[in-house]
Amino acid sequence: MWSEVFTCPECAGEVNFLDEALDEESKRVRDAFPCPHCGVELTKKKLERLYVSKLDRATGKTLSTPKREPTLMSYRIGSSRYEKKPDANDLALLAKIDAQSLPPEVPVVEFPYADMWEAPRMRDKGITHTHHMFLPRAAQAMGRLWEKARSHPDARLRAFLLFMVEQAIWGFSVLNRYRLRAYSHVNQYLTGVYYVPAQCAEPSPNYNLGGKLDRLVKAFRNLKPGAGETAVSTGSAARLPLPDDAVDYIFTDPPFGENLSYAELNFLVEAWHGVITQAKLDAIVDRAKENRAAQKSVDDYRKLMADCFKEYFRVLKPGRWMTVVFSNTQAAVWNSLQTAMQEAGFVVANVSALDKQQGSFKAVTTAVAVKQDLVISAYKPNGGLEQRFAERGACEASAWDFVQTHLKNLSVTKVKNGALEFIIERDPRILFDRMVAWFVRHNTPVPMSSQEFQSGLAQRFVERDGMIFLPEQVAEYDKKRAQMAQAPQMELFVSDERSAIDWLADFLKRRPSTYQELHPEFITQLGAGWKKHESKPELAALLEDNFLKYDGTGDVPSQIHAYLSSNFKELRGLEKNDPRLVAKAKDRWYVPDPNKAQDLEKKREKVLKEFDTYLAATGRRLKEFRLEVLRAGFKAAWARRDYQTIIKVAQKIPDEALQEDEKLLLWYDQALTRMESGL
After folding, report:
1. What is the mean pLDDT of residues 363-377?
2. 404 pLDDT more than 80
């Protein structure tokens, strides 16, 4: 185990953090401990990292790196495990290893994007090249293992051995954290980030790979795929080596926007193979590049994903299905994924949440991280529908043909927690938007208006509890409905920010929830039916501006107390200040009490700053905007009789968007009247 060395801010004496902070008996790191030189009380935040300069013989450059010292050794004799401090012989051996040349198998490749990784920054740790990731002993071991694996004469065994050794690359590096009470010190690095800890564990090759080798042998011993049975390939999903209409089913787990930088995270392992991913083709949102030309916007992400979905659409058989697993907190990224699927030709049939039970590091430790992924079920329309469309063209018959086909592909019933759920895809307004998207995708005019469509639905199909069914599906639904005590609750239709706020208010009244619980439910609402010019709001912003969160201080709010005591048996009958109730209620959002409306109004004032950006925006028209911001801005301008501001901003709003909102249109018309009459 290695520990970084710090200096005391009082006496400048060297402090080996692990030596001084570790309690030997409890195996816990103390929050405060005395300086071994002057006795002043220290905490880790008070310490200053000590750097040393050393020559990097591989590059010929001088590096400034944190000073590290070996602090603890763990070893076995027979079945007994022991620990000790490194003695003079151990230190002499480490010095001898440090003097050896770097094995030629260890790659010396400069990291291209070391500026973007999360703290502690790579450059702060003196890491600019791949070989800096390994301490001297680990570098020698990895180089020898790689050389032996690569030199095996049998191609299949060579690939197997390289695969095995590859598993140790991250675990042998300085990314491998020393965790005091860990069962094992193999692969204790943080996933999804190059995090260099202050204390790292350097395992031996046998400790790291011994058990892994046994497990790999068991896994591969009976694996004998025959020709034509299986195919595993690595490449771009935008260029699949498959013929048209060849695949029965697609399951895809696409890149999650800007959560992870996949190409960069692959770089360390790929450097050993000498084959590097082209980062420019990485389907991510990347705003962190020093070179602005290399940055990727949300629209770049959409285009990259669209290329992949178009290829999926090409190789999938007509009438077959694709499952997409997706997770991202940003509405813009979620919208980009849906748009990419729609552009490719897929029709979404269902969006639901997937609870993976085991959360990621961020999901467990961060209050705003997503704990549940979304599962999107979409299909490629069958060949008959496409052929009939080609023969008929953009007519009403084609529209009803699409609806008929789409309804066949939707779930008839959906049960969650013993209750019948409303199937949002069967909502008449969602059906209309799916139909419109179908015609838009074929570059043809939509043959009917929304009113004509709704009227036609009532004549041709059957309605139950606000949902549309085919005549042959109704019996199945009615049978299931008869078994349930209550009808499914019809969802509020979310089409803009105002309706999104209403939906949240309705949901939180029934279930005061944490951000993580609320997010998968909310994000599924931001799909079809959204107004064209209305920008999709972020959930965090909507909650902050319109609702209240219990921070764990004071009594639990009545709304949260009522919900928890009704739904959790162990919390019934508890006082509002009971620690058990407080712990469960903390970080839950709820609808504010009318008596606290003044506090909420203060929050709303923040939106006026965004309104000012609309006012200052150059260009003839605003492409996207928040209606709630416009309403708040118009209201404030009207109150101060600033009619010119209302007119100026209103003229930047597309006519169809202005006509759809009665409040904005009224303020605009009255402002024009006031200006014209000189009032």
Report:
1. 58
2. yes
- 425 and 291 share one domain: yes
Residues 429-439, mean pLDDT to the nearest whole number? 87
247-252 vs 316-326, strand pairing mode = parallel
Q: List, as one string, the DSSP characters of 631-651.
A: HHHHHHHHHTT-HHHHHHHHT
For residue 104, what pLDDT is reported? 94
Q: SS3 helix, strand, coil % of the chain, rounded to 5?
A: 45, 15, 40
Cβ-Cβ contacts under 8 Å for 249 (sequence gap 6 or more): 320, 321, 322, 323
Residue 642: CB atoms within 10 A of its CB come to: 15
Q: Which of 288-302, 361-375, 539-553 has the lowest mean pLDDT?
A: 361-375
Opening angle at CA 486, ends 484 and 490, nearest 5? 120
Helix (H, G, I), strand (E, B) or coil at 411: coil
Task: Please say whether the beta carbons of 589 and 578 come within 8 A.
Answer: no
Q: Do residues 190 and 324 both lie within one domain?
A: no
Is it the case that residue 599 has pLDDT exceeding 70? no
pLDDT, mean of residues 454-466: 91
Task: Give yes or no for residue 323 having a pLDDT over 90.
Answer: yes
What is the spatial distance between Cα 460 and Cα 404, in angstroms, rounded to a whole number?
9
Residues 172 and 74 in one domain: yes
User: Residues 105, 251: one domain?
Assistant: no
Of 604, 632, 664, the one marking the end of a domain is 604
Do 514 and 619 share a domain, yes or no? Answer: no
Nearest-angstrom CA–CA distance, 488 and 420: 5
The pTM for the full model equals 0.66
**pLDDT for 169:** 94
Nearest residue to 644 via CA among 618, 610, 676: 676
Exposed, middle or buried, 657 (CB in 10 Å: 0-12/13-18/19+)? buried
Q: What is the CA radius of gyration of the chain?
A: 31
User: In the predicted model, is pLDDT for residue 116 greater than 60?
Assistant: no
Helix ranges restricted to H, 64-105: 88-98
Beta bridge partners of 4: 68
User: Per-residue pLDDT for 355 more than 80?
Assistant: no
**Which pLDDT score, from 0 to 100, does residue 114 have?**
46
> Domain range holding 622?
607-676
Please report whether residue 229 resides in a domain. Answer: no
Number of domains in the chain: 4
Residue 180 and residue 310 in one domain: no
As a whole number, mean pLDDT of residues 251-261 equals 74
Task: Considering only residues 198 and 95, tell me which one the structure prediction assigns the higher pLDDT.
Answer: 95
Residues ≥6 apart with Cβ < 8 Å to 244: 314, 315
Per the CB < 8 A criterion, the answer to whether 640 and 663 are in contact is no
* Whole-number pLDDT of residue 366: 42
Q: Which residue has the higher pLDDT, 146 or 211?
A: 146
Q: Same structural domain for residues 401 and 352?
A: yes
**Based on the domain organization, do 594 and 611 belong to the same domain?**
no
Q: Which of 585, 604, 623 is the last residue of a domain?
A: 604
Please list, in sequence order, all residues whose beta carbon lies within 8 angstroms of the beta carbon of residue 314, skipping any fewer than 6 positions away.
Answer: 240, 244
- CA 278 from centre of chain: 22
On whether residue 63 sits in a domain, the answer given is yes
Residue for token pair 């409306």? 597
Long-range Cβ contacts of 439-446 (<8 Å, 24+ apart): 439/394, 439/398, 439/399, 441/342, 441/343, 441/345, 442/389, 442/394, 444/393, 444/394, 445/394, 446/394, 446/399
List, in sequence order, every residue forming a beta bridge with 129; answer none if it has no partner. 110
Confidence of residue 607 (pLDDT cuts 50, 70, 90): low
> Cβ distance 341 to 302 under 8 Å?
no
Q: 283, 254 in Cβ contact below 8 A? A: yes
